[in-house]
Fold this sequence. Notes:
Blueprint: H1 2-32, H2 44-65, H3 72-95, H4 103-154, H5 158-173, H6 179-195, E1 202-203, H7 204-222, E2 226-234, E3 240-241, H8 247-257, E4 265-274, E5 277-285, H9 288-292, H10 296-299, H11 305-315, E6 320-327, E7 330-338
Parallel strand pairs: 2-4
Antiparallel strand pairs: 1-3, 4-5, 5-7, 6-7
Helix pairs in contact: 1-2, 2-3, 2-4, 3-4, 4-11, 5-6, 5-7, 6-7
Amino acid sequence: MEKQLTFRKYLKLEPYLHVLLWVFVLIYPYVKYIEREGGYPMSFAHELNALFFKMTISYFLYFWFFPKQKKKRDFLIAFLVFVINALLYESVDQLFHGGFSDVWNHLLAKSFTYASFGIGFFTVHSVKKSYIKQAEIDRLILEKQTAQLQTLKAKVNPHFLFNTLNMVYANALRKDDKTPELILKLSDGFRYVLNEGEKDYVSMAQELDHLNDYIHLQQERLSAKVNVQVDINIDDPKQLIPPLLLIGFIENAFKYTSVLKGTCHSIAIGITLNNSLLHFTCKNPFEERMTQSYDQDWNESGTGIRNTQERLDLLYPEQYNLEIRKANHLFEIELEIQL
């Protein structure tokens, strides 16, 4: 990013740099002879003439020859232009010297001068070309990452939708008084996914509200089967975070706890934010044999940990640390991100 900003600044300054270059070329002979008696012997018109031919060949190479996908014909044209320019330069230059003398020596000297300017402008062209090519590569990578992120975010919700709707439907059949509240939370959740989920970043407060609504709905759905403990401690509710980043981990906890037998299975969720360092933990009971017979469609729906890891790789390369532990029938996730 810094390189791109530097390159953009250079593009804005480039015309002025060219002007400075040619002003320096024009006045250099006078500066070189400033301490000699009588100063530089040639007229200003002589230097303007020399400058014109130097600029002509330099910009011919810079704007026409260097950018082309070169063929043999292009090299021949460049050589002819080079020779014609040098001959014209020498012809006009001799008018300032009172006659033709040492033509071949002058031509050789002009050729070296042209070659020097050509090398300089070729270097500038090559650097610009490499920057432009890198900028195009960066743009394509960014577009690819954006498309990947949109796809990954779109995979977060289907399972939650179906199971929660089933739960609300069952409550409605029982004429449960909580049904309107659950419908409202479900509506808020989908509104968040549709509106805020399309954004690159949301505030920490918005993301936590969505997570709390989700946890509440899952508690209602699983009823006595789970005992959820949530510990949240953040120092900046306005801190920006990608939407739906943590929901996959929490969904995973409820998903695999829901298949266990018995009641009061403990799920512990911790979220701490301090000086833009996010620390997230999630613990839930886990039985490998129970998950093997789990709903295959859900298992392969793209939600959960793998999905979230892919997003983290795209959003925070080398800026996060994720540890996943399975031991003593306990599944534990610990995540740190420098936001």
